[in-house]
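Input record (one chain):
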Amino acid sequence: MNKIAVIGGGQIGEALVSGLVAAGREPSSIIVTNRSEKRGQELADAYGVHTTNDNQQAIDEASVVFLCVKPVGIHSILHEISEALESNDDTVVVSLAAGVTLASMEEAAPAGQPIVRVMPNTPMLVGKGMSACAPGRYVSEAQMELVTKLLQAVGQVAVVEESDMDAVTALAGSAPAYYFLLTEALVDAGVQLGLKRSLATTLASAAASGAGALLDAESPDPARLRQAVTSPAGTTAAALRELEESGLRGAIYRAAEKCAQRSAELGGLG
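The corresponding structure, as predicted from the sequence alone:
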């Protein structure tokens, strides 16, 4: 079985490990690194995986190395493990850091190193993630298939061109925050209408969860689902008209554009 190394046992790293183990991956084939010995022990106890604070040791003979660290640390990690990567001819490196380009990572890694850039999102913490993957120029078809299969343990996967990554960030990577903000606003609206905050939170959160489940249950067609809720001259129609006249659609366009623009700026900093 392929050895999997996860560099960084934080929230995203743990979500990945949890999904892999739940999907039937043998825990003994996974090794996780973390600077904190206590945190490493927590992961070992929870999932039965190997842990270490030695990144080079972790990637020895690994087929896939997931970099689950902050964007600012990606290049330094690649420099740190370069010698070990040179000894592993078939290893593919997978970066889950936003904004770090393939070109900059390929420059920091040994020559010819296969690297995949991934834009994940936080719903992977509950197995409902959306991961967009852009393969680098040295990634083989078999390596890409393996990476895709592994990421499917924590949600859906789409293979995209790197040039689409800024738009992907706007529509998937950052998008959960948009829905959280909408839910937060609905909660506040419910309080304004006289509901207790606890009840308003339950109602708004359940509506968001249910709407998401409907989108998951069939071919995604949000317009048709919206129409199914909207009776002529009814309550929903009145609410939707107010949202449209208040410029909700235009605000979403502008927010997505700003998000993509910022993603491009961060990529330029790398």
